[in-house]
Amino acid sequence: MSKLFTPVTLASPEGPGLELRNRTVLAPMCQYSVSAHDGVPHAWHLAHLGARASGGFGLVFTEATAVTAQGRISDADTGIWNDAQERAWAPIVDFIHSQGSAAGIQLAHAGAKASTHPWLPASIAAGETGNLDVAGRGWETAGPSKTTAFGLIPPAAMTGEQIAASIQDWVDAARRADAAGFDVAQIHAAHGYLIHQFLSPLVNTRTDEYGGSFDNRTRYAREVITAVRSAWPAHKPLAIRFSGDDWVEKGWKLADTVRFATDAFKLGVSAFDLSSAGIGKYHGPSGPGFQVPLAAAVKRALPDAFVTAVGMINDPSQAEQVLVTGSADGVSIGRAALRNPNWPAVAASELGVAHDMVPFAPQYWRAHW
């Protein structure tokens, strides 16, 4: 039996937890495909996510889904801050379930990295119109500190009242995600977006209770986790994605991630996905599986958590090895899944998984051989 295709259960505070049919996870990947600039997912998202569910993934995550309009990376992002968005997600979740996959939503706020052109690291100023077909008008951004580190229009530093209001945005989004039927909520704390901006000393220059020391820089993240865990049903797992290391001198380091992951676990997070970077010029490693050591470090610290590795994991044998060696409990597949929506089904066949365990959709039964 392949380890990759052994079912696994994600723990929750109450109930039996969530069983996944296998340990392949579709990584959250922005599609920049919201035609009406209103955050409502449409047919593309059903086709994109539905294809990966029918292709055999155990857990399918949405793209970064904004908890507020101000928190979108671009205005071609999906959101879940209003009723129309909640209603539009529900049939997509239903279809994912119908294919045997669990449905996860990545809740996100871009902070200082909001109001940009899709695919380009360039700001759209408030009230201006982007020069790309999918880019609409820009808006004012906010983050923990006024910073030029991203090469974008500097955000306004958030006031205490704005911080409190943003935490409520996360709560409201989690409640809508539950109403839409999602099984897992993942808090996006990676890639230089709002929570990561609070965590990293590279851009958090606050001098109040949200800046300076480790405890202060992690305060916002802890408050978001606590609030979302209270709003998210106790029988459903809560997940988080970290940038395990900034790979920049004086930035957020792996030791910080391990320390904070332990705190997050105590606050009710049971699933951890380990990516990296997003702030400053990249000086880290590269190559197949380059981020696996980050996942392995968190797994050693949290043996009872569900930890996934992500980043240039393309080959089924490579993915299997990550699990067999105990570096992680699952793998998040990104670009390889864009190239082949049936990546899990093909991987199962290549790894010699028993015929009845290969997660091909019934309509594709001829592909089993």
TrEMBL record:
Keywords for the protein's UniProt record, in alphabetical order: Flavoprotein, FMN, NADP, Oxidoreductase
Keyword Oxidoreductase: yes
PANTHER family assigned: NADPH DEHYDROGENASE C23G7.10C-RELATED (PTHR43303:SF4)
Organism for this UniProt entry: Paeniglutamicibacter antarcticus
SUPFAM superfamilies: FMN-linked oxidoreductases (SSF51395)
Protein name, UniProt field: NADH:flavin oxidoreductase/NADH oxidase
Limits of the NADH:flavin oxidoreductase/NADH oxidase N-terminal domain: 3-350
Flavoprotein among keywords: yes
Required co-factors: FMN
InterPro entries: Aldolase_TIM, OxRdtase_FMN_N, YqjM-like
